[in-house]
From TrEMBL:
Pfam families on file: Band_7 (PF01145)
Native source species: Polaribacter marinus
Annotated TM spans: 12-29
Membrane topology, as annotated: Single-pass membrane protein
InterPro entries cross-referenced by the UniProt entry: Band_7, Band_7/SPFH_dom_sf, Prohibitin
Coiled-coil blocks: none
Protein name: Prohibitin family protein
Taxonomic placement: Bacteria, Pseudomonadati, Bacteroidota, Flavobacteriia, Flavobacteriales
């Protein structure tokens, strides 16, 4: 006799509730967005007018309608590096390596994305950087680009970019020109010229130093000559005799054995004889 297997009766409406639960979970997952540190978000309203430019969402957890989409972009300061081929004032092609620091205006992130798209760096920032670099570098010679004008060029490029990006909801805060690459022959010529100028300055310094020393020695010699002239004019025979006597008295006090002959020297000065 066959054994009858027990039947499992699925609750009526159970499948319906499962479907509803799954749908709710999917719907909830699509309706929640977490915006990370240093980021901001704007809503793209699929059933409305597209990007909502009135509000920028800050960091944290947010719930949006499932038919809308949250566009999240970095709003903290960022940097972009690039190498540009530009022409100097005399038409020589040079390569400029630079870094730009920028950040979108937080409150106007929606307007920035609506007018320039999500890839606003490529659409807006890159052209502005290239235009500013070409405009500024075109004012200088290769020598100025290679040596002493780096900080001035950075500030001028920054000023030019700010003009181009005015009212575009994108801020550029700093420009750094890291390297200027010239053709090898031009770079070698500039380095040779700079070396020669340095050697010339060093030579001029040595000459100036020697001239100063010669002038000092001349003044010193002239001073001594004047002093000797004054001294000679003031030394009479009587003064010399008096100084000789004083010296003789000092020598006579010395413990060394000696013989002093008074009045035997020239002009009556003592003559000192001794074994020391």
């Amino acid at each position: 006799m066959a054994t009858r297997q027990p039947e499992f009766n699925f609750p009526k409406g159970g499948l319906f509730f499962i479907i509803i639960a799954v749908a709710v979970i999917i719907l909830f997952s699509k309706s929640t967005v977490t915006i990370g540190p240093g980021e901001g978000g704007v809503i793209f309203e699929s059933l409305g007018d597209g990007i909502n430019t009135e509000k920028t969402y800050s960091e944290g957890f947010h719930i949006v309608a499932p038919w809308n989409r949250m566009i999240v972009r970095k709003v903290r300061q960022q940097s972009i590096s690039d190498e540009m081929n530009v022409l100097s004032v005399n038409g020589l092609e040079v390569k400029v390596n630079g870094t730009i620091w920028y950040e979108p205006e937080f409150s106007n992130l929606g307007k920035l994305i609506k007018t320039k798209g999500e890839d606003y760096e490529r659409e807006l920032l890159d052209p502005a950087i290239n235009a500013a670099a070409r405009s500024v570098v075109g004012r200088y010679t290769p020598e100025q680009l290679y040596s002493s004008k780096r900080d001035v060029i950075e500030q001028e490029i920054l000023d030019e970019i700010k003009i181009v990006l005015k009212d575009q909801y994108l801020l550029v805060t700093r420009v750094l020109v890291e390297d200027v690459k010239l053709p090898t022959t031009i770079r070698t010529a500039i380095e040779t010229k700079l070396k020669q100028e340095q050697e010339s300055l060093e030579y001029e310094f040595r000459i100036a130093k020697a001239e100063k020393e010669a002038k000092r020695q001349k003044i010193d010699a002239e001073g001594k000559a004047v002093a000797n002239k004054i001294l000679s004019a003031s030394l009479t025979d009587k003064i010399l005799q008096e100084k000789g006597i004083s010296a003789t008295l000092e020598l006579s006090k010395s413990p060394n054995s000696k013989v002093i002959v008074i009045g035997s020297g020239k002009s009556g000065m003592p003559i000192i004889l001794g074994n020391q």
